[in-house]
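JOB MANIFEST
job_type = single_chain_structure
chain_count = 1
residues = 950
[input]
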Amino acid sequence: QKDIKQFTFDHSYWSHDGFKTGASGLLVPDGNNSAYVSQQHVFDDLGRGLLENAFKGYSCSLFAYGQTGSGKSYSMIGYGPNRGIVPIICEELFNKIDNNRDFDKKFQVTLSMMEIYNEQIRDLLTRDKLLQMNLQIRQSPVHGFYVQGLTQIPVGSYVEIEQRMKQGTARRTVAATNMNETSSRAHTLITLTFDQFLGTEETKLSRKRSIINLVDLAGSERADSTGATGDRLKEGAKINRSLSALGNVISALAENKKIVPYRDSVLTKLLQNALGGNSKTVMIAAISPADINYDETLSTLRYADRAKQIKNTVLINEDPMESLIRELKAENERLKKSLSSIELPSSVVVENLTPTEIEKLKDSMRREMMEQMEINLTEMEAQNQAKFEEKLRQARQEITQQTIPITKQLGDSRVAVKSKPYLSNLNEDPQLSGVIVHVLFHKQTGIGREPPNETQSNQKSAKIYWIQMKGLCMVDEHALLIRHGKTGAEVELRALPNAIRMTKVNGVPVKNSVTLQHKDRILFGSHQLYVFCNPLSKEYADELKSGKEPEVIDWEFAQRELAQAIGFEQFGNKPKQKEEAILQQQLLELLPLINEVNAIAEELNKQRKFEVILLPPTAQAFKYGELKRTKVMIRMKCTNTGHMWLWDRGKFMTRRFLMQDMYQKYLNKQLEDYSQECDPFWEPLEDLFIGIAPAFLRALAYRLDVNEELKIMDFIGDELGTVNVKLIPCSSSALPSNNTTSGNTDVAFVEDPRELIGKPFNFKIMLSSPNLYDSEQNKCKFTVYYRVFKESELTKVKMEPNELHTRSYSIDQVTLEHLDYFHTEFICFMIYCSQYEKDAKKHHDAYSSGSLFPRRYSHLSVEELNDISKLKTELTILQRGLDLFIEKDKQLDQLYKAWANKSLSADNFKLILEDIHKLVNRKVPTINLSATSKKTAVLPIHEDEERKRK
């Protein structure tokens, strides 16, 4: 609230809550006061105007930007009956075409669908697997940047578009699953080329063309917001270079720069027209309402704010047919002449080129010219309505015959699905879940990465029909699914010998075989996750009879189950607090990624193992008043030497993307030798964070010394060693102010800490070198980090064995915050020890993946130390009181002796009363002995009025 950021946009929508589900599954506002905005509402505001402009002949673009999980795909594509803008635009486009009453107007619509992943283009509408990958971008003086060989399919209805988009999504899912890719890293571009032919042959035909780009951009997570700024490979592993380039283009256009870096990425080349050319463009900025996503939300809003400043000059794309065809023919004639006597442009310096290099350049120019001629011929054919109708007929015929081998779309397999057991895929992207369906038609179905043949006979001469599943931890012959009984209702899953530990049912590894139950979750390898559905089972029949909504089995459900199976018992319960929910969400995201990189490391023989480590708030040296959260860290361990590294989430995510890319090159047989500096699995040795030593500050509130041999504890509460710490109140010159003899016990001591308010306060910190129980580790050099109160930077102390660190800390004026800090907090000394290249000894390895979640006693260890510190402080204060009582007794005895022989006059009586009054009024410190209770404070800073009165 102190730093409010304001942004102004054309529309602002809320879809996080405030809705109810109608009978058809459609989400609608829950009452008149609901802020929820439906998908249809968004289309009416954004999509309808875009569609009207397309009919006028303007090119239009719509793209969604935002972090993963913020709702981009929901707004663009939608889920189930809650369709997004893209399908509604496509349906409304053909509705308007069907309602046309101008018989002199003809329409043509062609569809293309592609995915950009890691700067590579994948055609999602071609059946040819070789043509799907690595398409090239070319540039034409007429058409600008285009994708060479991209499939353009004529469509004649919304149903045809829907079928083609389902096919594209299925291919995208198969590729992402088999190639171990992350869907949130990919951009999906759907392009509709919408042509309107006006007039007749007699009145001279003209054509209006609108290119409608519908773009679902990749997730916009910023690595620096998650802590990856210090990674040496960050610049080479930008999670999505296309988005960085897109941001640079938008900034350049917003600032009216002369040079706009369109050429920096595949995405910006293809969107050049949409961003700064002849196009009416709408951007949807999807943001999360969660405070944990504040940085990403602010970044998204700034991104969209810059985009809003761009002003495009748009023109209606209308050309006379006669002149258009004439220009295309003329260009082809010119290209033919150029092909016969090709010469390099004058701008090319040939002096330093070999004849072979010159010939290569000429060959490249020839290919580009021939490609351009082919494009021009296609363009001329497109103007011929009869040829378009023929292509449309062929496309319709193809889609009725076309099936994706082995893998069938759910929509195309409904009849079989009703009567046969089947596997349905689960994906972290809800759009890609349920897209792949493997129907178990046969008695025996095999699963494998590289099965021998489509069918194979086993020893009993029964045929095995193989389904190919690629990906990490898949073996050539992975598992068998065997149907038993007359109806085949009972299905057995049998893990084959080499895949026993890599086949799991409901999170548990299959030792040999298991009988599958309806809605069991099956994990093949590390990434192939499916739900088993059995329409022949009693459970399925009971589910139908009950009439209740069936239990939803999604990616998150399966991941929670897998997490529980490896020791995360907390995933079986609903989180009670917001912090627990955030932590569980982070772990659900990371655990499958940890399994993935472990599998990649094993396959590439990298001798690395990754595990999740949770740092509780007590181990993080937070600033006073800062929000304290458990931090998720990833530990990388060398299985050969025992060396260990701790990475934050941001650094791990950056490295994981590089590991994925390395694995892709390995699969494509393109993996070259990596230098250490470029290898994402390599890291120079660094100091290892081994544990913490908390020094409690309560005694300082009474100006008492803290002189402790602190326990050093690891992340799960086990004791590793000790470290001596002294905290000594001192004067401004850093000389201890309680450097007194035993006969002067109350010097600098305060009975009520509130006496310190408004006064300066200084104390000295004295720290000895840690002493570990492991004799080998005790020889290492140590580095200690700690923070006092609200210091912005951690103090770093490098320590040799037996070295002493001394430092003073000054407070100009003590406030209630300082007293509360002394009273409730501690200085967290974080202990690191050095690692050496030759060091192959056994490292401390108490925290394994079986104890990833902070155990209860890890928190209790710090609390117990806090209680001990309280008791020590109380004991010191009581000892001070006892010393004062003894001193008073001595002084009373001296007073008795001094007045014993004096006369009892009125004057003497007054004098002796004054001496007794002074002696009695010397305060003796008192404390509440129940102060060790967690609910009772030793220091009565927040006393109520009644207690004050008493």
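[summary]
The longest strand covers residues 106-117.
Residues 412-551 form a domain with the Tumour Suppressor Smad4 fold (CATH 2.60.200.20).
exit_status = 0
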